[in-house]
From TrEMBL:
GO terms for cellular component: cytoplasm. GO terms for molecular function: glutathione dehydrogenase (ascorbate) activity; glutathione transferase activity; methylarsonate reductase activity. It catalyses: RX + glutathione = an S-substituted glutathione + a halide anion + H(+); L-dehydroascorbate + 2 glutathione = glutathione disulfide + L-ascorbate; methylarsonate + 2 glutathione + H(+) = methylarsonous acid + glutathione disulfide + H2O. GO terms for biological process: glutathione metabolic process. Keywords: Oxidoreductase, Transferase. The keyword Transferase applies. Belongs to the GST superfamily. Omega family. This is Glutathione S-transferase omega. Exhibits glutathione-dependent thiol transferase activity. Has high dehydroascorbate reductase activity and may contribute to the recycling of ascorbic acid. Participates in the biotransformation of inorganic arsenic and reduces monomethylarsonic acid (MMA).
Length: 239
């Protein structure tokens, strides 16, 4: 992977796009961008990472992607030489899996794939109380998060949701679980009451995964970013 570490913002210029190089538009602390980075790592796909300031979004990026969200992929088609662009974490991740068939992350069984997609699509049941806990300092959201995590505890019948090794569903869910330690000071701890032992074991297995380690953001750095985010003073670039 090559990268431009600083987050580009309004007034910047778009770096030239090179042929035969896949570009990922990202943000260092974004869980949605981390989804795609996990897929890229799992499939050993080389890429260039361009980080975007999501508060002061570059005009050139808004011209490519009006919502200004990350992640998105961009590349030059080998045959037509036209620029290709795809946004949205789930769409980008599926595209990478389908166009790079080695080490497929989606199950071949379409019913199992559908079950996994339900878990992914309903992940807002995790993310909503997660952010509610952060914003309220633990005064709200803890009960809802534990209740909603029970669905995932019940769905976990192996080391990973994907079976004996991580699948797409594991990588799509993981970024928020990686951030759960941010909730410790607010009084939430995964499996704190002992009722989510399978999820606790899954978390340990995922933490040890080499692809997770490749794209992990250090907790102290994540805390700095999140503190600024909660105070309305977002900083993207730390020395």
């Amino acid at each position: 992977m090559t990268s431009i570490p600083k987050h580009l913002k309004s007034g910047s210029e778009c770096p030239p796009l090179k042929e035969k190089q896949l570009r990922l538009y990202s943000m260092h602390f974004c869980p949605y961008a981390q989804r795609t980075k996990l897929v890229l790592a799992a499939k050993n796909i080389p890429y260039e990472e361009i980080n975007i300031n999501l508060v002061e979004k570059p005009e050139w990026y808004l011209a490519k992607n009006a919502p200004g969200q990350v992640p998105s992929l961009e590349w030059i088609d080998n045959n037509t030489k036209e620029i290709r662009f795809i946004p949205e974490s789930l769409i980008v991740s599926d595209f990478l899996d389908e166009t790079n068939p080695e080490n497929r992350l989606q199950p071949n069984d379409q019913y199992v794939k559908a079950q996994h997609r339900v878990l992914i699509e309903r992940s807002s049941n995790i993310t909503t109380p997660f952010y509610k806990i952060l914003r309220s300092g633990g005064k709200e959201g803890c009960e809802d998060l534990n209740k909603n995590l029970k669905t995932y505890e019940d769905a976990l019948n192996n080391t990973y949701f994907g079976g004996s090794k991580p699948a797409m569903v594991d990588y799509m869910l993981w970024p928020w679980f990686e951030r759960f330690p941010l909730l410790n000071d607010a009084g939430f701890q995964l499996n704190g009451d002992g009722k989510l032992p399978k999820l606790a074991a899954w978390t340990k297995a995922m933490e040890a995964n080499e692809n997770v380690q490749k794209v992990k953001v250090p907790l102290e750095l994540m805390k700095k970013f999140m503190n600024g985010y909660l105070q309305g003073k977002v900083e993207y670039d730390f020395e």
